[in-house]
Automatic annotation (TrEMBL):
It holds the Pfam family TsaD. It comes from Candidatus Hydrogenisulfobacillus filiaventi. NCBIfam families: gcp_kae1 (TIGR00329), T6A_TsaD_YgjD (TIGR03723). It catalyses: L-threonylcarbamoyladenylate + adenosine(37) in tRNA = N(6)-L-threonylcarbamoyladenosine(37) in tRNA + AMP + H(+). Gene3D superfamilies: 3.30.420.40. Keywords: Acyltransferase, Cytoplasm, Iron, Metal-binding, Transferase, tRNA processing. SUPFAM superfamilies: Actin-like ATPase domain. This is tRNA N6-adenosine threonylcarbamoyltransferase. Fe cation binds at H95, H99, D280. The gene is tsaD. Residues 8-286 form the Gcp-like domain.
Amino acid sequence: MVAGGRRVLSGVVASSAAAQAVFGGVVPEVAAREHVATVLPAVRRALAAAGIRPRDLAAVAVTRGPGLLGALLVGVTAAKALGLAWGLPVIGVHHLEAHLYANALAGPIRFPALALIVSGGHTSLLWWEDHSRLTVIGETRDDAAGEAFDKGARALGLPYPGGPAVEALAATVPSTPFHLPVARLEGGGYDFSFSGLKTAVAELAAREPGARAAVARALEEAVVAALVRTTARALEAYPAAALYVAGGVAANRRLRGELEALCHARGVVLGLPPPALCTDNAAMVAAAGYYRFRRGEFLGRWESAETPWPLPAAGS
Ligand code: KG4
Ligand code: ZN
């Protein structure tokens, strides 16, 4: 529950990570079933924790897409049902937009801004001119940054989600003798590619079974270096007042430290939500919903989940 797009009244996370860990990744059907079981109890808990009643609410915001269709349908259907029952408008939010608005919970967004979204499904650089103008300037051509962590973790025998596990293991060694390559893409754009890294980690982990921590550290350094160097190039080309970072991988301490150094050197404001707001959460969806609410953008009666849901690309 969020008031005024800014003040978090309550935040409840019903995570299916434990159910997914059994499979070492996200199984769409498992995700959808977990959503069915947890969505209404989570809403009830959020209301109770905020000490408010449905009649105090102005609108219901929900992630409309992109993502796994089964899970999205559960969320959108629940939001529409609650909207009907409570007589409230429903707002359909784009998942990447929602991640960015985790930053709005900390203070007003400074435009124009560059945004780096790094999650299990996305690695995108965006040009964010104002609340309603968000264009993609670069994205991954294959695996997402979080996927590189998740798949690398699996090669290292670590549990899902891989990012926190890799970070914790990497932190047990002061340095690593290994260097894992990340492809530099031709053409000078801002795209990313992490699929080669997955193979390189698997090979290194098999070759060096006694050096798991050093391999984890090499993986973390490689992902972070690729993200930071491309973001640095974008900061040179775009007149950004701020860089906003979001998505589960933004919880990574090495990435946070290197982005802090980068933005400090460039004199650019850095927006980095606290780790709990970097991973998927309802407050960021509500914050994004607030700005759509102010623009009167509501989900139509015949509208539902939307996936894929590409954001406009720069120059199009
Ligand atoms: O944004 P998110 O919660 O879910 C979506 O994918 O939308 O991001 C989850 C991803 C997973 O791939 C997870 O391994 C990664 O974020 N992650 C991290 C860390 N915490 C979560 N990656 C690196 N370091 C972390 N501390
Ligand atoms: Zn996410």
